[in-house]
Design goal:
Elements: H1 39-42, H2 50-58, H3 67-72, E1 77-83, H4 95-105, E2 111-118, E3 121-130, H5 133-137, H6 153-159, E4 163-168, H7 170-179, E5 187-192, H8 201-211, E6 218-223, E7 228-233, E8 238-242, H9 248-251, E9 272-275, E10 284-288, H10 291-298, E11 304-307, E12 311-312, H11 316-327, H12 334-347, E13 350-351, H13 352-373, H14 378-381, H15 384-390
Parallel strand pairs: 2-4, 4-5, 5-9
Antiparallel strand pairs: 1-10, 1-11, 2-3, 6-7, 7-8, 9-10, 12-13
Helix pairs in contact: 11-13, 13-15
Length: about 400
């Protein structure tokens, strides 16, 4: 039997059945399909292989002697951008949706793997293969919950599509890259978003009820560069809650174990990454990793206002102080949290330095989580670039 068809004898796991990664499963959807045949190799939490897959996807692994490569992965270009004419209802200005629509309109792909929400629940993800721009636009706005994007891989293969765009986050893309030559595609485009701290649907509800003044009207939210969580509500209003005022003790267990064990914040294996953390307010941060990523960006270049990335401030003292504060579940009174947020916004890290702050904070936290909960996995699971980042800081003595 050929490599393309050997997996057909396998059968996806039924809902509720234990997954091979057990508690570390990120529910990427691979195990819902007959591609479970490859799970031991493909799963980001069973077989960390970012460096090897970077070399396959981009023609090179990151240069660990370069700070930009160390933090942000292999890339040809980085910039800040926003659409001149924003897409109504988009989480930001709609760059991801615009690229996906153009990929379909210009015949670059036959389908786009993206995530709509279920009719019953605005935050319940529903992966689809969009075949029209209208279906793409129906998927706009991030779903901050674990999402089985790869559950549609059987449908992709059975559709006979040869050219496909997949939009996804790091754990999904690592698994996809590991099996992409088994799907029968002639061309795969990968448009990624940075990802950190996803939750189950129940965990999301706890986060909203603990943090927002009106959890039932939240449309979307993001942890922003001003050190506040921005909640967008149905009436268009924005509620801002300081990071330092979050109920850390109550929320420490709300994030998925997979997210607490992830070191691919920047989606290293995507062709093009569109996020926000390395850009100023109202702009998005674009990372072009290879020629395929540039090809996608070229489709919307004339729709964008761009500016060079910049970097300001020094993150290291703030990161070092945040390590024990998070570890001990420290929560400041709201007045003090707001004051600290104002001070840090004025003098704290900005641009790429803010992005490094966020990466450092999460990598140190996640390193400690793996060390304490999965010590046998620590050496193999933490990538070399993450180890080098964590080594800059003094961690709590165990």
């Amino acid at each position: 039997m050929s490599a393309v068809s050997s997996h057909h004898k396998a059968k996806g796991l039924a809902p509720g059945r234990p997954r091979p990664a057990k508690a570390l499963c990120s529910e990427c959807g691979l195990c819902d399909t007959y591609y479970i045949h490859y799970v031991k190799e493909a799963c980001a939490f069973l077989n960390e292989q970012i460096a090897a897959l970077e070399a396959e996807a981009h023609g090179q692994s990151r240069d660990l002697s370069s700070e930009d490569d160390l933090y942000f992965g292999v890339h040809q270009d980085m910039m800040a951008a926003r659409k001149k004419a924003p897409i109504e209802g988009a989480q930001w200005t709609g760059i991801v949706s615009a690229i996906a629509c153009e990929m379909l309109n210009q015949g670059k792909v036959e389908g786009v793997v993206c995530v709509q929400n279920s009719p019953e629940d605005r935050f319940q993800p529903e992966p689809i293969i969009a075949r029209t721009p209208e279906e793409v636009l129906a998927a706009r706005v991030n779903k901050p919950t674990l999402s089985p994007n790869l559950s549609i891989l059987e449908e992709v293969e059975q559709s006979g599509f040869k050219r496909l765009l997949v939009i996804g986050v790091g754990c999904q893309i690592q698994a996809l890259r590991a099996v992409q030559d088994k799907i029968g595609l002639e061309k795969l485009y990968v448009l990624g978003t940075p990802c950190v701290d996803n939750v189950t649907r129940e965990g999301l509800q706890k986060f909203l009820e603990t943090t927002s003044k009106s959890p039932e009207t939240v449309v979307s939210y993001e942890f922003m560069q001003d050190f506040r969580v921005h909640f967008k509500h149905e009436d268009g209003s924005i509620e801002k809650v300081p990071f330092f005022g979050l109920n850390t003790k109550e929320l420490k267990d709300v994030f998925a174990p997979s997210c607490m064990s992830c070191f691919d914040y920047v989606n290293s294996l995507a062709d093009l990454v569109v996020g926000y953390m390395g850009a100023p307010f109202s702009y998005q941060w674009l990372v072009v990793r290879n020629d395929t990523g540039q090809e996608m960006l070229d489709l919307v270049q004339d729709q964008l206002e761009t500016q060079p990335v910049s970097s300001q401030g020094d993150r290291k003292n703030a990161v070092q102080k945040s390590i024990p504060a998070y570890d001990k579940g420290v929560t400041l009174p709201m007045w003090a949290a707001r004051l600290m947020g104002v001070v840090i916004e004025k003098i704290g890290p900005k641009g790429l330095e803010y992005a490094r702050f966020s990466i450092d904070s999460h990598f140190t936290r996640n390193y400690l989580y793996v060390k304490r909960n999965y010590p046998e996995k620590l050496d193999d699971h933490v990538p070399e670039f993450a180890k080098r980042i964590v080594e800059q800081y003094e961690l709590p003595k165990e």
